[in-house]
Design goal:
This protein is α+β, with helices and mostly antiparallel strands and 333 residues long. The N and C termini lie far apart (142 Å). A six-stranded antiparallel β-barrel has the order 1-2-3-6-5-4. Strands 7-8-9-12-11-10 form a six-stranded antiparallel β-barrel. The chain is elongated and about 120 Å long. Among the domains are: 99 residues, Trypsin-like serine proteases (Thrombin, subunit H, Beta Barrel), CATH 2.40.10; 93 residues, Thrombin, subunit H.
């Protein structure tokens, strides 16, 4: 005979809500409570229904996408911070060259040498040579005077140019600018005027060395450059006081080397000269012939004009600076 199964009593006591109302105790209130519990879920159950597993996963995925987008936008290479290339640099340089007005090489060279250029005026008996007459007429016309007017006060024997080669006031010029003068006056770049005396001459190269009695506090000496590597076609500029006007600048090229020149009176012949085509006129004598770095290559000394006008027609000569430096007792390059 089969025995019936035996079951032990459960240690857990069922909750009243789970067990339901006891028979015989079901009143109206209990029935209403039971109906409410069965028909309306609790607040926790409602929230769980609204944010179920699917909704939570979508919200987490959306937050991850937003974070990735923000980080990617921050670390994405920006156009303004990219590295410059040689093409970018070349393009910027070309744009600058096309839009900016840059000074010419001659203008930059003239700015370098200008503080070392002086105006030289000699006073004394008036010269009677054709060249002196032409120079006098030119000076008068530049001052707005009649060509044949006589100078007032001190008689200007001649006007030329000089260049400072030692910052203590040592100046190179042409001998024919100061020869026979009773008095010599030099005017520096800042307007300071000073009496100067001749301290050395080199007649064979038409050179004279002057010493100014007063000098500017910031006087700058010119830089001299050897002509050993000078070639026809090299750019040069002449700086001086043609007919007393200046400082004036004219640019050109070296036309030839080792040229010779005989003075119109035939009294002197100069050799080993630099021929150039930058405009030079009476008053440029003694001034510097410079390269495009503002370095002195020579001292302007003569112009060639077969007519009686004695003005520039395209050929001028300068004494190499090696010879000029020797006149001042300076060592060769």
């Amino acid at each position: 005979m089969r025995r019936p199964g035996l079951y032990s009593r459960s240690p857990r006591t069922p909750s009243p809500s789970a067990a339901g109302p006891a028979p015989g105790n079901a009143g109206p209130e209990a029935a209403a409570t039971a109906a409410g519990a069965a028909g309306t879920p609790s607040s926790g159950a409602a929230k769980a229904a609204r944010t179920g597993p699917g909704r939570k996963s979508f919200a987490a995925l959306l937050a991850l996408c937003v974070a990735l987008a923000a980080g990617g936008g921050y670390y994405w290479p920006r156009q303004g911070n990219r590295a410059l290339t040689q093409k970018d640099i070349d393009s910027a340089v070309m744009r600058t060259l096309q839009t900016a007005a840059l000074p010419s090489p001659a203008a930059k060279a003239a700015d370098i040498i200008r503080p070392s250029v002086v105006r030289v005026v000699s006073y004394g008996p008036e010269k009677k040579t054709p060249e002196a007459t032409t120079e006098k007429r030119g000076r008068n016309m530049a001052k707005g005077k009649p060509p044949e007017a006589d100078a007032e006060g001190d008689n200007e024997r001649g006007v030329g140019t000089g260049v400072v080669i030692v910052d203590k006031g040592v100046i190179l010029t042409n001998l024919h600018v100061v020869a026979g003068a009773d008095r010599i006056k030099v005017t520096f770049f800042d307007g300071l005027e000073s009496i100067a005396t001749v301290t050395g001459v080199q007649p064979e190269n038409d050179l004279a060395v002057l010493q100014a009695q007063k000098i500017p506090d910031d006087l700058a000496a010119a830089t001299m450059r050897s002509t050993a590597d000078l070639q026809p076609g090299d750019q040069v500029a002449a700086v001086g006081f043609p007919f007393g006007i200046g400082p004036s600048v004219s640019a050109g090229v070296v036309s030839g080397l080792k040229r010779s020149f005989r003075s119109p009176e035939g009294k002197q012949e100069l050799g080993n000269l630099i021929q150039f085509d930058a405009a030079a006129n009476p008053g440029n004598s003694g001034g510097p012939l410079i390269n495009m770095q503002g370095e002195v290559l020579g001292i302007v000394t003569a112009i060639l004009n077969p007519t009686q006008a004695r003005t520039f027609i395209g050929i001028a000569f300068a004494i190499p600076i090696e010879n000029a430096a020797a006149a001042a007792g300076m060592p060769p390059f």
